[in-house]
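Chapter summary example.
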Amino acid sequence: MGTGAPHASRLLAALPQRELDEISRHLERVRLDAERPLTHAHGPIRRVYFPESAIVALSVTMADGRTAGVSIVGPEGMVGLGAMIGELGGMDAAVLVPGVAYAMSPERFRSAMRRSEGLRTVLRQYGMAMLVHLAQTVACNRLHSLDQRAARWLTLAHDRIGNSAFPLTQEAFADLLGVSRPAVSTVGARFARAGAAEFRRGTVHVLDTDRLEAASCECLEADREAFAASLAPVADPERGLHLVDRQRRLGVIRPEIRRAR
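The structure predicted for these 261 residues follows.
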């Protein structure tokens, strides 16, 4: 992913061109504002989202109101995966990093799945990657330090955004990690002293990707391998059409951007 370049949904870009064209007719390009809730664990899924430049945090809320991050979703994935089999969200989803996404109703999504073998294949690949990632996260939360976990999540966000600076508050990052804001402030100060990353006025600046990756743990590479495998392009009868060409074509299907409802 090139720094500063607009990013289409990498998950949708893995579809064969004919099936991408078909599903694109039902997608709306929307802007997702920071902290906007998209789904609730026990509420209906009203829309599914395929992020282009936004990052969405998936979390679990406990009975006492505390939250813990479970995963993040960017251009490699989708929000509302539960719409494949039911009506409920399964987890809370809220916008972590504002940006753009493609949206469609769950009814149209399920209809597209029935018609598109490629979409079913892509979603199976993504679902398997998420299972691997979630299992890795459980182990990471149990066995690795806060610094390692923070470095892992910041690097994963950087991988998805592709920019060295992106909006992310310490409060939102603390919720993702399931820790207090002062704890994140302390970790951020250590990262800044090491020249790896720093928080400034609601923005994360990745100063040195190598140092940030070195501060992470083995889970980072496991995550990357799982999602790289999930984005393998489905066989396309239009041979010779490169994945980047499909991303560009996807990026202009709906040039207008609306606020997500």
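To summarize the output: The chain has ten helices and eleven strands.
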